[in-house]
Amino acid sequence: MKKDIDKQIPEVENVHVVAAFEHNTTFKVDEWTIYIINENPEALETVLIVSKGESKTKTTSVLRKKLDVLPSMAFAKLEFLHDDVLQVDNIFQVTYFLDGKLMHKDFKFPKGSLKSKNLKSLPLLSLKGVVAK
User: Fold this and answer.
1) What is the chain's pLDDT, residue by residue, as a tens digit (133 residues)?
2) What SS3 state is found at 68?
3) Cβ contacts of residue 71 below 8 Å, gap of 6+?
4) Domain 2-126 top-level CATH class
5) Residue ranges per structural domain of the chain
């Protein structure tokens, strides 16, 4: 069974977690909205996202989301970040299958990184925001 497991974990490429700063017309507020973006030529399958916020003194609730498929050159909205959680590191653990291989990467928005001075154009979205490390 051990011989069937890849010894080298493939590096995640062309998948991004971004925070877009956008206006919510329903609640009439500006907010940070989290998206996952797939810039691969293939679809991502069974995408699992676990998000949490943490610091030395605080921890947020853990949120989980599943996408059956994220098509090629597409994006999906995951959640919005309340102002309270901008004071902690926000971590998004993303696991998915690409070409039959299990892929995983932790994306992080460090405390204080979601600020208007850090806005850049986001891939595939006609919005400005911050790309997670």
Assistant:
1) 455 555 666 889 999 999 999 988 888 888 999 999 999 999 999 999 999 999 999 889 999 999 999 999 999 999 989 888 888 999 999 999 999 999 999 999 999 999 989 999 998 998 999 999 9
2) strand
3) 38, 43
4) mainly beta
5) 2-126
Q: What is the pTM of this model?
A: 0.89
Sheet strands side by side (includes 44-54): 63-70, 44-54, 89-98, 101-109
- Half-sphere CA count of 121, side-chain side, radius 13 A: 3
- List 129's β-bridge partners, or say none: 20, 120
Sign of the dihedral defined by the CA atoms of residues 114, 115, 117, 121, in that order: positive
What is the DSSP code (8-state) at residue 99? T
| Nearest Cα to Cα of residue 40 among 74, 72, 76, 77 | 72
Tell me the residue ranges of DSSP E strands in 42-88. Answer: 44-54, 63-70, 74-81
> Which residues are CB-contacts of 129 (< 8 A; sequence separation ≥ 6)?
18, 19, 20, 21, 32, 119, 120, 122
Whether residue 60 contacts residue 73, with contact meaning beta carbons closer than 8 Å, is answered with no
